[in-house]
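We now fix the convention by which a protein and its fold are recorded. Here is one such record, which you should read through line by line:

>
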Amino acid sequence: MTILAGAGPVINRRVSGEILMKNWYTFDIGEKPVTEENALPKISLLTSFDWQEYELLDSGNGLKLERYGPYRLVRPEPEAIWRQALPEKEWSSAHAVFTPSPEENGGHWEYHKELPKRWQMGYKGLKFWTQTTASRHVGVFPEQAGEWDWIGEQVRSAGRPLHVLNLFGYSGLASLAAAQAGARVTHVDASRKVVTWAGENLALSGLEDRSVRWIVDDALKFVQREARRGTGYDGIILDPPKFGRGPKGEVWEFYRLIPTLLQACKEALNKQPHFIILTAYAVKASSVTLYYALNELMKEYKGKTEAGEVVLQEKSAGRILSMAVYASWTSLKKNS
């Protein structure tokens, strides 16, 4: 029998420029020894402790209280099944509260204090616009900062110029992280509005001189065309939604199309790929599912696959809030 064990919450944490990695581990108490072939995958928690302009202040009762720059927002969070740690006066000080409706991604914002149409935020030299939108989203997923760091490290550690493809790129923070590190980037999203937003974030970050190509297209169709053209990417970033539509009404469904998308991505890689990272929100797939999908996809290349959860840690009670699952592959000996 193999037991999955670990000592408390386990986090990939950046301290003084280094990543300290602690993972769940496996050990065997039966006759069959654990080998590289039969060992269970290590599951990590990925986050960043380097935010200055964002905080998860508290969570609980299906909600989360966040600070985006000088403004406090309350948004729904189904994962927060515990009680709120901060007193009600802290929650009632929020500038705006998003109230969901029964339909998928439906709802509206209620404004309790004056809030600008949009405001600037920053993370490690990257600058970007934040604003409330027709949905609960605000133009940045703060929990992904650990992934931005990882992407930047992959680019800087390559020892050669990289061409990176970012699919479902949204407002462009992962693209900016890659460009900031020196990569040539192709950014793809189905929404012209968010691609324009990403371009504004690039300019705001002072990265206009970097090579970034902006594409409004269906992600699957685009990468299939790129594979036929033999473009050859060194790294690919994927953040597909559970459900979505392309600019011409193309329907995206995660479980139905993710195998096809991953295969197309493999065909669009060059002969010596450097990295690939896949993030998934609001799907039933576990990080283990993503691990095996990515590990099988990249098995012919020498590298390392890791997987886990993308998390935020509260300021109030220190609890870890899981926001998404991810898997990553890198040709580096250490997936730092």
In short: Helices lie at 88-91, 145-157, 173-180, 192-204, 219-229, 254-268, 287-297.
